[in-house]
Amino acid sequence: MNLPNFLTLIRFILIPFCGYALYTDRFLLAGILFVAACLTDLLDGYVARKYDMIT
Hints:
Elements: H1 3-23, H2 27-50
């Protein structure tokens, strides 16, 4: 598993936790998890392009 795919896996793992945080009215936690998921998306694309990897 290469780094971009690992970052994508982390993003998929974060999504249910973000949804649960929203469901339980923990909006700050949901926001933090959402930002973390967005950052993994940015890093995934950057690393894949820089090192010519396929995701």
